[in-house]
Amino acid sequence: MEGIEWKSQExxxxxxxxxxxxxxxxxxxxIDGEKTVWQLEWICMISQSQLSQFLKKLKNEWMVQSKKExxxxxxxxxxxxxxxxxxxxxxxxxxxxx
Length: 98
What we know:
By secondary structure, this protein is α+β, with helices and mostly antiparallel strands. The chain is built from 5 helices and 3 strands; from the N terminus they run H-H-E-H-H-E-E-H. A hairpin with a 2-residue loop joins strand 2 (64-69) and strand 3. The termini are far apart.
């Protein structure tokens, strides 16, 4: 695939990953900075095993990265384009949400 065809595939893959509510919640939780696995479990209200599966998928697609410090693993958004997209979504769809 070349040019716009390849880019359209990349965008479609990105949007597919963002289409799952819990994956989107995980990523939105990381907009304001890194979080530990425990923090993400609490924010997203999902089990550690479910969170692990979601994070693995996001990491495999280069959307998040992790670093280990002692007993804690911290996750951050690894692609600035994803950060910008999520910030836009937050500004236009999530402000003043109940």
